[in-house]
Amino acid sequence: MPRKKVNKTKASEKRAKKKIDNLSQTHGKEEGVVPTTLEQIWGGDGSDKYKTLDEDEYSKTLNSMGKSDLQAHASKIGLIPIDDRTQLSTRLLREFRKHVARYQPSANRANVSKAQLDEESIRILSEGK
Questions:
Q1: Given Cys at both, which of 18, 74, 112, 120 links 79, Cβ 3.0 to 4.6 Å?
Q2: pLDDT tens readout for residues 33-80
Q3: Is residue 11 included in any domain, yes or no?
Q4: Handedness of CA 19, 24, 27, 28 (dihedral sign)
């Protein structure tokens, strides 16, 4: 027995197209935020590793720690714990600043207006055209 041919009418195609045009899709991203790490894409703000993103608060935490606590914290962060307390504190602060810099949006250098450039810079940039 031969199979029946099904002809789509133009009216049914228009109805389907209208339904699709009315739909809107959500993407779940925050508008205006450019993620720089995979953790930011998943919604993390970076405060889980150091428990804060405030440098003053973190330095107070480091100053309140004993030497053995500092060494344990350094090994947890991924640094080799050294014997000198001041050097270890400066290394931990440096790593903290790097971590915070990863989660802060970078300055958009592409949006520098010509009014901010001096005449010589504009002349040099226009040579490449």
A1: 74
A2: 666 677 767 777 777 888 888 999 999 999 999 999 999 999 999 999
A3: no
A4: negative
